[in-house]
Amino acid sequence: MSKKTIIVFSGDYDKLMAAFIIANGAAAMDDEVTMFFTFWGLAALRKPVGAVANSADKSGLQKAFSAMLPKHAEKLGLSRFNFAGAGRSMMKKVMKSENVMTVAELMETAREQGVKMIACTMSMDVLGIGKDELVDGIEYAGVATYLSEADESNVNLFI
Amino acid sequence: MSKKTIIVFSGDYDKLMAAFIIANGAAAMDDEVTMFFTFWGLAALRKPVGAVANSADKSGLQKAFSAMLPKHAEKLGLSRFNFAGAGRSMMKKVMKSENVMTVAELMETAREQGVKMIACTMSMDVLGIGKDELVDGIEYAGVATYLSEADESNVNLFI
Amino acid sequence: MSKKTIIVFSGDYDKLMAAFIIANGAAAMDDEVTMFFTFWGLAALRKPVGAVANSADKSGLQKAFSAMLPKHAEKLGLSRFNFAGAGRSMMKKVMKSENVMTVAELMETAREQGVKMIACTMSMDVLGIGKDELVDGIEYAGVATYLSEADESNVNLFI
């Protein structure tokens, strides 16, 4: 048993798939896994649209950023061939026929396997994302926490 | 002597250059190097156009993805300033005048130096890429194999 | 105390923020940190416009690449929602109001904390960037130097 960390910087659907597949694979081999979600990767942790009241204390700029960022992992685009979501839809159809899990399903499995998910508080400030907008059962921390975890891990990836 | 792994997720020409330069540098220092090609990175392992018959057993969606993905490493674009291939052509001209190897040449060197190249079988399913479409001399495996290699390595990168 | 390396391949403003925040966090915990700037990441090390005479010995192609690459870290775009620089300006306004440092400020802190910054000489050749165009106080080296540093480090990231 060893430890792994993954910084999830990207908000691309395909990169999130890669991150969760690695995290779940390691957890299945009894590794302790920490995923640290920062910048656009925070989009993966957002609650579905409608589940959140608009935060009244955001600045106009924070509201703009927050509005641009997809409201749910399954709405994120691909890093390539996205074509305004058509690429992602297409990929998800193939995934279904090949029995490959969606990001939402992979995240659910990660939770069940005890993968630790941390939201980067500095990125939340910059992008204007409040705790009430993120899913339950996650932790909140900064770079010092990430570095402590990485120091104890034998595989550390930036995705 | 130690081990290194590189996950090659990206299909950008410049990122592939970086991946192979690191792999070849490590192999030259007698390290064991494993490159794990997944998602768009699989494009680097494709046989040149014309060398492959169309797979009859692909779904329409898999055919579409497969058609969009460049058929050869030297046809891949840059992550920046690609301008429909003009940027890559320009970069390749400078590389030639500066005696920097192309991706195809770097891959050939990697082979000669015994760098292990693994194609991710799950990504092949999602993108509709068959073994007959990939170059010879590579291995096929999934995330468990990657994790076993990474556990034994002291440098693990995601590119 | 341990060592860390970060390959800075990307020239995106947000990814540079992430790279420097991790580097500075580790340096603050008394780690030795080496940042290896390659390809578009070299843009972060450029002197401001006007500070450099045009290099007479660049080829036309090198001049073109060199001209496209932003001349200063604070002019770099975001990896998402950049909108020709509007996204970056917006993010910088929020950062200011939230007391988050800019890339230029993060780099200054990195210097003060003794973070070692290395410019990749092969990328400089390919992109046509001369030493006279880069800031003072950095080192110049290739992949072998990176690998030696990485071999001694317990966290190695590619950003």
Show unreliable segments of chain A.
none
- How would you describe the oligomerization state of the chains in this entry? homotrimer
Instruction: Determine the most extensive contact between two protein chains.
Output: B-C, 28 and 29 residues
Number of strands of chain A: 5
Biggest sheet of chain A: strands side by side, in what order? 4-3-2-1-5
The radius of gyration computed from the alpha-carbon positions of chain A, rounded to a whole number of angstroms, is: 16 Å
Label the structural class of chain A: alpha/beta
* Distance linking N and C termini of chain A: 23 Å
What is the element string of chain A, with H for helices and E for strands? EHEHHHEHEHE
Please give the count of helices of chain A.
6
The amount of beta strand of chain A, in percent, is 15-25%
Give helix % range of chain A. Answer: 25-40%
Features:
homotrimer, 40% helix, five-stranded parallel sheet, 159 residues, alpha/beta, globular, 5 strands
Written account of the structure:
- The structure is a homotrimer of 159-residue chains.
- With 159 residues, chain A is an alpha/beta fold.
- Chain A is built from six helices and five strands, in the order βαβαααβαβαβ.
- Chain A has a five-stranded parallel β-sheet, sandwiched between helices.
- In chain A, α1 links the parallel β1 and β2.
- The two termini of chain A are 23 Å apart.
- Chains in contact: A-B, A-C, B-C.
- Chains A and B meet through α1, α3 and β5 of A and α2, α5, α6 and β5 of B.
